[in-house]
Amino acid sequence: MYTGLIHAHSGLRWIVLVLIIWAIYKAISGWTGEKQYQKSDQLAALLALIFTHIQLLIGLVLYFISPKVSFESGVMESSVLRFYTVEHITMMLIAIGLITFGFSTAKKMDRSLSKHKRIAITYGIGLLIMIASIPWPFRGLGTGWF
């Protein structure tokens, strides 16, 4: 079960990243082009939100069953344990919180330009935080590309 969840979590990150980039692209092009907020814009933002939350649920299950997460003393001395126990989850929760906030507040706005701007900014900041907190293979945390 653990291995399957790891593969699902690692593979789904690519879908999440693509969907967030798609939503940001649509929002920036709508914002700079002063376009109306279309159903396709909302769909892009919604799909990014849904897949991000699915990724969160898988990540929360992994958080409590992973051998890379420890609640014992000395966690902060190991860079791998510290990353997975503290840094990764904290930064991802912040990023997902920003994306969720951006979607829900944009949905309530009246002006199309404001909706595009809110999605572009919150999803963009969320994406940057996510990219910074993904355990990329070059970070030396014992992970691969998938």
General description of the model:
With 146 residues, this protein is an all-alpha fold. It has 4 helices and no strands. The longest helix is centred in the first third of the chain and has 31 residues. The radius of gyration is 17 Å and the shape is elongated. The two termini are 17 Å apart.
Distance between the termini: 17 Å
- What is the β-strand count? 0
Q: In what range is the share of β-strand residues?
A: under 5%
The biggest sheet, with number of strands, parallel, antiparallel or mixed sense and barrel status, is:
none
Unreliable segments of 5+ consecutive residues: none
Helix count from the secondary structure assignment:
4
Give a summary of the structure in a few sentences.
It is built from 4 helices and no strands. The chain is mainly alpha-helical. α1 packs antiparallel against α4, α2 runs antiparallel to α3 (79-108) and α3 runs antiparallel to α4.
What descriptive keywords fit this protein?
mainly alpha
